[in-house]
Amino acid sequence: MKFNELGLSERVLQAVESAGYTAPTPIQEQAIPHVLAKRDVLGIAQTGTGKTAAFTLPMISMLEQGRARARMPRTLILEPTRELAAQVEENFVRYSQGQKLSMALLIGGVSFNDQDAKITRGVDVLIATPGRMLDHFERGKLLLTGIEVLVIDEADRMLDMGFIPDIERIAKLCPFTRQTLFFTATMPPEIKHITEQFLSSPVVIEVARPATAAATITQRLVATGGQDHEKRDTLRKQIHAAADLKNAIVFCNRKRDVATLTKSLEKHGFGVACLHGDMDQRARMNALDNFRTGKVPLLVASDVAARGLDIPDVSHIFNYDVPIHADDYVHRIGRTGRAGRQGTSLTLVSRADRKHIDAIEKLIGNKIEWFGITLDELPASEAVETPRHHHQERKRPGRPPPRTEERHRPSDSPRSAEPSTPRPASPRRQRDEEDDRPVKGLGDHVPSFLLRPVRITKS
Question: How many beta carbons lie within 10 A of that of residue 65, not counting itself?
């Protein structure tokens, strides 16, 4: 099927042709006619299948008729992250060439005044993250009574980020007669309940089994020790040994690990940028631009980059940390193998990650092959792992051993009647892990001012 058979307007068809697209993807082929017919749509498709164009193209065709009023946008698109919202804006700019459609992007990290100025003039398309959109509404700068089409994109990510209460509130502010388009890559029970609440007799379009990876992605597991220095060494070896590596995204579970790993890779001569949620908007966009344009071949990122980002030609994905939630694995590796291209995903696995790998394999319905040796074949010296604690103290050279003498308490202290126990001679880590004696009151953590004798005077 061709795009000209879907009912899109001539201007939109010209924009699609100039962008170099000739045939729609399955989700576009099935969704666009129903959107043009003003039906509610529930679209379920794995990441990288073209969900964004499935709603932007028909929306542009419908918006050619009519005009926006001040502070009353005609359509509203909700995205979970700033990067996704900016990406949708780029799609609208690309496909609305030659048309007088106005749009506004409401995301954090950008001046309220600039955004207010656009809304005041009136916009046809409002693209926003839920929090910033509600900020404008509560300031009295925005009315949602003119919304004709409401799009909730990456709904499962909205659920993970805790945006569902905001989504419910926004939906109630929009007219009951609106058209709702709901797109998600996975379909957990919570999302199913939300669709029953938001959608009215929707057309369900499912072009792939939920939580599946594209067939164009080669998935492998790489055995590694659990210590940070071992994992970093394994990652560097895999990057050097990767065949046909053009560029790659390296995913970490924690923001601080993103920064640490980025510095380590820079120290070893790799061109690398980082991306995580604590960075300001300008730094995040610069990192993405440098990676897209090829200035740096490696992007170390948290899961903020795992959902929906359209970087078409990523050759490799490295999971430095195994994701805790199995769904996140599908989204991470979905950054490669897009639009029919071949991609490779390598996940570093230590012994502590076995249960997470089992959950991932259960979700995708397939066993993932090992690259090289398996975890059971890993040498014992590399497989030994010690539990990591945030409060664990490092031993410093020349540091005196911990004091073992018993703490002196004044004889008339309220605690003097209790038998005193000597302070343990072990370091804090050993005390936390090994000392299981019951603690009375504040134990050994009594502040000194509470141990001073108190003189009681008769009134």
Answer: 7
